Amino acid sequence: MDNPLEYSFEEIKIGLIHNFEVGIDEELTKKFANVSGDFNPLHMDEQYAKETKFGKRVVHGMLLASFFSRLVGMYLPGKNALYFSQNLNFVKPCFIGDKVTVQGEIIDKSDATKIIKLKTSIKNQEGKSLVEGTSQVMIR
Amino acid sequence: MDNPLEYSFEEIKIGLIHNFEVGIDEELTKKFANVSGDFNPLHMDEQYAKETKFGKRVVHGMLLASFFSRLVGMYLPGKNALYFSQNLNFVKPCFIGDKVTVQGEIIDKSDATKIIKLKTSIKNQEGKSLVEGTSQVMIR
Fold first, then answer.
1. Cα–Cα distance measured from residue A65 to residue A122, given in angstroms and rounded to the nearest whole number
2. Could you tell me the pTM of the whole model?
3. CATH number for B131
């Protein structure tokens, strides 16, 4: 566990980017199912998933979305974050064994409210976009 | 672990509601931090959180959002869900010890795309809204 970055509102510039990689394995998927309570067989049952058009288990989209919590709370802006909103579009399926890159880019900041706006994305090892969206975060 | 419901597109009616309760404890918060990698001290460090305006640790908003994965994957529509999008507004803080009610209500359905739209909300034990948003889900 690393310590979070500590950007102040003044230090946040439009165009600033942070990203990190996460390997998606069986264990992480099980942990997320236990936390969320989502045991849908498309995520959890290999036999069932094999019969669907995906051909194998699909990783919970919301597991990927949880990495935006890390992005905001550890990197952009890190320690002083107060998460206001997040829009999520689940664009393509993620599979067990994928290595994903989570990225945030500052696209706006408001002096009046101290709210920063991020473009957020998660791509797989082939560079294909899996999750897209935007975040609004206040800096305390 | 219960089996998911299995609503077909035809069975989904506007106004249909499902909800469930979740008790938010220390253990669940730790598990979410480990899954997401978000160890921001506002969530994880009691001493630090005491000095903030919240006066105690705030539960990750995205932990609450993970319950929408359960709502969609287990209840509305359950087994045949394909999660398309989710908007999240983090309205009020959730604290360890809170008991939250997660609710989804069908507000629209499209015959052309088989996509259903849900109004989603999470309230605390006092009925105060913590997270609000909408989901779009395709029924396979």
1. 9
2. 0.97
3. 3.10.129.10
